[in-house]
Write a structure and sequence with these properties.
This protein is of the alpha/beta class. It has twelve helices and 13 strands. Helix 2 links the parallel strand 3 and strand 4. It binds (4S)-2,6-dioxohexahydropyrimidine-4-carboxylic acid and zinc ion.
Length: 346
């Protein structure tokens, strides 16, 4: 049987939520990833070091005994974030960055930043302290076509920001377009991007295959086949500026299957397996390890993980739903197959 063994990976963009729903899904991530950068868009958002450390503690408390997993934390930037929060975050040693949600761009982003200039003092302090800025890169103007919002963000916000703070390290999160790939490739040192499994495996046709597919809806939304190919080429090239961040974003079934469904695709149940499919399809399975377990750790200046993880090429059927607190969650590929699975003995 074909198998691949890689250094244990890191998920550098993950939504875990909180409470019982978190307890239901955390083991999926901890079984695969040694560390994950946990997004702070709770309700209310995680806007201070104190809140981030308390959230980290709740994550560790929810971890089943015997599982070895380290949450890395980020703070949610708002118009009112104090520059002094940067020093507090740095001193905590568990916080690796601040997340920029343009207000209104996505799920639970209403407390986000209304104008990037309002956080200039914080960004300047981050540059001094060398904390990373994680960016949800979409403009929020409702007049802008939803498929163009990432490209417009690059020209209108991200490129000027990277110039104004030339030493600020920035992760352009969950990139979806050829324009984003080209921006990263053409940019100064200190700029990188995460890529999700869904944007490598699907294009926007998947939103409408045989009818509307709420479980394929995430933000930034799936893009064209040409964009998808640009992402595949970028990760398959082995360029160290591209690394793994699933953006696994669980929402209860009822919040997805409704007249106005939430954005977010849940992939934690099969995340590394789905990336293996994507890399294999691009003829680049040998590059999976660096993407999953090397580039991101290096960018965040974390030691690479010591453990190993083995994947075998053996298709399995994904359950139609998993428990999610008192509710249910519909995972990516529900009722269908994933071509790779984790080896029994890790
Ligand atoms: O699809 C998404 N879901 N995109 C985001 O940016 C946020 C996430 C969530 O929290 O559900
Ligand atoms: Zn996200």
């Amino acid at each position: 049987m074909t198998s691949v063994t890689i250094r244990r990976p890191d998920d550098l963009h993950l939504h875990l939520r909180d409470g019982e729903p978190m307890r239901s899904i955390l083991p999926f991530t901890a079984a695969r990833f040694a560390r994950a950068l946990v997004m702070p868009n709770l309700r209310p958002p995680v806007t201070t070091t104190e809140q981030a450390l308390a959230y980290r503690r709740r994550i560790l408390d929810a971890l089943p005994s015997g599982m070895d997993f380290e949450p890395l934390m980020a703070i949610y930037l708002t118009d009112r974030t104090e520059p002094a929060e940067v020093e507090r975050a740095k001193a905590s040693r568990h916080i690796v960055g601040f997340k920029l949600y343009p207000a209104g761009a996505t799920t639970h982003s209403d407390a986000g930043v209304t104008d990037i200039r309002r956080v200039d003092a914080v960004l300047s302090r981050m540059e001094e302290q060398d904390l990373v800025l994680e960016v949800h890169g979409e403009v929020t103007d409702p007049e802008v076509d939803v498929f163009d919002r990432e490209a417009r963000f690059i020209d209108g916000v991200l490129a000027p920001l990277a110039r104004r703070f030339p030493r600020l390290r920035i992760v352009f999160e969950h990139i979806t377009t050829r324009a984003a790939v080209e921006f990263v490739l053409g940019s100064r040192a200190g700029i990188a991007a995460t890529v999700t499994p869904q944007h490598l495996l699907m294009n926007r046709n998947a939103l409408f295959a045989g009818g509307i597919r709420p479980h394929h809806y995430c933000l930034p939304v799936l893009k064209s086949q040409a964009d998808r190919e640009a992402l595949l080429n970028a990760v398959a090239s082995g360029d160290s500026r591209f690394f793994l961040g699933t953006d696994s974003a669980p929402h209860a079934r009822a919040a997805k299957e409704t007249a106005c469904g939430c954005a977010g695709i849940f992939s934690a149940h099969g995340a590394i397996e789905l990336y293996a499919e994507a890399f294999e399809s691009a003829g680049a399975l040998a590059r999976l390890e660096a993407f999953a377990s090397g580039h991101g750790a290096d960018f965040y200046r974390l030691p690479r993980n010591q453990g190993r993880l083995t994947l075998v090429k053996a298709a399995w059927e994904v359950p139609r739903a998993y428990p999610f607190g008192a509710e249910q969650i519909v995972p990516l590929r529900a009722g269908e197959h994933i071509a790779w699975r984790l080896a029994e003995e890790q």
